[in-house]
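Quiz preparation item.
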């Protein structure tokens, strides 16, 4: 039989943003509920080495970091729910979410931390070699390819920015694009073409990621989009940069989004246009998309949620007294 779960702060999503919001919310006495979703722990659970999260001298593992965050959130009073939200009601004043289990979750405030997923090519070897030479985040993993040969796949802003960033670590960066022109902004293209460390390979589509004897990425199998000619390019690392898709399907028609589906918030805050509803992490951030920035906005969402409830409770108490 379906159960109704009530809380002062309901959090949808359990990545760094959602769990940071939970930690701060629990410490503020809001007894938060986190509905974990399809991928408990978020994208870090499919990441191996993490070297850029503050506080750890040595390389740590993404899944371990998320396990520790979850344990900390539970320790300070968070309730973790293993469910997937299928619909939401943002009419308020109490916000409601329905789980795939049939359970109903009601929150006096709502924190949306559903994240975003990197878009992949969907070709053989891509997922098998993820973390073994194939990545979707140069900022996260570029450091591991210092002095090595790397390729970036894509032709938009993301791909060009990734290629430019990788020149901080590698003197041999190749951008592979399936067309003969880039979609990136002109100023980014100018920077790309002016950089002597970057080579552009036009009209090539990646057909397969190839491993070597050690089980790591060895090369990419390419096919010319105009002639059909097949070739290989040797590389130590490949970065798929064809964009990200925010997990905002639940909120279409209910909250403002930009043209790519990211939730719009008040600049410099996690506040959406609905008072009491906040968005944090990659679901509202198409620029940085880092674990530490997600955690930071999760903290902001919890602090703003606590202030929202305090102001509302004070106003209600004053009305009763009057």
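Solution:
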């Amino acid at each position: 039989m379906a159960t109704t779960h009530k809380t002062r702060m309901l959090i949808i999503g359990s990545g760094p943003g959602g769990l940071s919001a939970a930690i701060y919310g629990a410490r503020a006495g809001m007894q938060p509920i986190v509905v974990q979703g399809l991928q408990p722990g978020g994208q870090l659970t499919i990441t191996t080495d993490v070297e850029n999260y503050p506080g750890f001298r040595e390389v740590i593992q993404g899944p371990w970091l998320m396990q520790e965050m979850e344990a900390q959130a539970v320790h300070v009073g968070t309730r973790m729910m293993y469910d997937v939200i299928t619909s939401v009601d943002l009419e308020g004043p109490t916000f409601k979410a329905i789980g795939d289990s049939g359970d109903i979750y009601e929150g006096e405030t709502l924190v949306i931390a559903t994240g975003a997923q990197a878009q992949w090519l969907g070709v053989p070897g891509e997922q098998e070699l993820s973390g073994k030479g194939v990545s979707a985040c140069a900022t996260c993993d570029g450091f591991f390819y210092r002095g090595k040969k790397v390729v970036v796949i894509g032709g938009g802003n993301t791909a060009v920015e990734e290629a430019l960033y990788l020149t901080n670590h590698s003197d041999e960066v190749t951008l592979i694009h399936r067309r003969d022109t880039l979609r990136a902004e002109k100023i980014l293209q100018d920077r790309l073409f002016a950089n002597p460390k970057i080579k552009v390979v036009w009209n090539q589509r990646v057909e397969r990621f190839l491993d070597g004897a050690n089980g790591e990425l060895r090369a990419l199998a390419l096919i010319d989009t105009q002639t059909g000619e097949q070739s290989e390019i040797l590389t130590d690392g490949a970065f798929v940069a064809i964009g990200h898709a925010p997990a905002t399907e639940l909120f279409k028609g209910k909250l403002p989004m930009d043209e790519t589906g990211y939730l719009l918030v008040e600049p410099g805050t996690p506040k959406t246009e609905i008072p009491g509803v906040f968005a944090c992490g990659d679901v509202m951030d198409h620029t940085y998309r880092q674990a530490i920035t997600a955690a930071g906005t999760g903290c902001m969402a919890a602090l703003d949620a606590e202030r929202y409830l305090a102001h509302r409770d004070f106003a209600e108490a004053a009305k009763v007294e009057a």
